[in-house]
Amino acid sequence: MTEVDLTAALSGLRRDLGDVRLPLPVAQVDTASADVGAVVNQLDDYVLPRLRDLDAPLVAVVGGSTGSGKSTLVNALVGQSVTTAGVLRPTTRYPVLVHHGADGRWFDDDRILPRLPRITGEVIEPVGADERYGVRLVASARIPRGCGILDAPDLDSVSAANRDLAHLLLAAADLWIFVTTAGRYADAVPWQALRAAQQRDAAVVIVVNRVPPEAVAPITAHVQALLDAERLADAPLFVIPEVPLTDGMLVAPEVDALADWLFALVDDAATRAAIARRTVAGAVAHLLTLMPSIIAAGQAQLETRDRLAEAARAPYSRAVERISEAATDGSLMRGEVLARWQEFVGTGEMLKRLETGVGRLRDRVKAAFTGESDAPEQVTEAIESRLASLIINSAQDAARGADGAWRSDPAGYALLGGDDLGRASVEISDRAAAAVRGWQDDLIELIRTEGADKRQTARIMAFGVNGTAAALMVAVFSMTGGLTGAEIGIAGGSAVVAQKVLEAVFGEDAVRRMAVRAAASLTERVESLMAAECDRFLIRLAALELDDALPKRLTIDAEAVTAAYRAEWESSPDGFRWTQPVGGEPEGVGGDEAGGGSVSEKRRWRRRIRQWWEGQ
Description:
alpha/beta; Rossmann fold; eight-stranded mixed sheet; 21 helices
């Protein structure tokens, strides 16, 4: 497997990372969001550009705390004033990148740090709230080809944006030149940055600046001990004593030693490539260790979304069930509906006489059904009012239930955003009335369909379409019987009248089938209405635009990168080691065992990748 394979695998990972959305406040989401940003920035700003151009000049980023003398050191390394020292300076937002004039093509486009525009010449620092950032390019013949030195903002700047920029630049470095002072080398900020470097096996050089001459030996020993404890024993250490500036420039043999050492490294193409490969390998290995938590965070978003969706749907599903039960258990055959039905067809006594064939009573039923009065419409209106009220009340209960469930969940509470969805929509009355009227239209269509032959059509016309529809509604409402007490004798008997009339028109089997279909039609209408009400919640989830397939794609991407990385790493010769002679080891470099950690570090990364691959 080649570097092209690794580049392709990383490009696929980067593409899918661009689709990651972590909007819901679930556990560890802030950490996961930061990890996504870190991986994306690392891929965009450093890993992918470097893999595509391993022979490009090295980027050495000079970073450190406020007042450590970074800019002064950069000027000293270059041998001319290219960056302004001090707390308030243009390099705060426009860090200076010094390079040989012949290397300009490598830096003047967005090959690295694509989000930072390039400028040349002097920088006029923006005034007020203008937060523009960029990189100022300075060409100098005093710096050798194959190297760019970038003066980063302070890691502990009072500006959060400047701190972020400093970390962004360090993450895009092939080589970190970390500058601290005799008074601050043990502070937390430097070591946090160095631990980050150690985690990604970055090539790091430590410079302790402004050391009193009498303290050089003890401070050197102490710093080296701290580096050993942090598994950075292979990092070269340069100690620069405090000396007065000469014409504003730092002039010291130790600075010359650092410059000679650095420029000797970049003078050799093979050494440059080895350093770049080491830092890239460490960066890739480190970002792979972040992928499991990123994937888990994406899956947690989907699970939270689905949980909230179910919490919203459940009350509306119960509302549909409640209405369906009420519409078929006789509950609706009470009050106004029962009274209007009684006025329409009479009581059970009329049924008894109807069954015995008493002609005048049969004529009475027929007269009622043929529409010689407005009785069918009164029954229909009573049913419409009762059913619509039931739908509205059920929708109100469902809204309260869904709103309460979301408010008890941090993610749901955040999605509500202060809106009160605990009441049904303002359209609920119109929706309920439309649903009932639509159902009544369904029944009339059902009657016409079932009564398609001439004989049945004649019977329907004899009893009237509206009256037949009213009878069918009553038959549906009385399918399972839910009446008690005195209602049984009255409503129950009256419901049987409807059954008998329908059987006389359609036949017993058809009536049973029609009642089931009519009940199902009502359920469908109510489901559609409740779905529209529930959408007030679900639309907020849809707006999150979470990709259900993304965790799986990221897993496949990470496995592809892991396989390519392992093949590339294990098939390549040992990477760059600091003890490798580069024109002789310069004076000022840390102890003889400085490079002893590189092989063990390589094994450590192999072990970490293998653990990730095997899911340990």
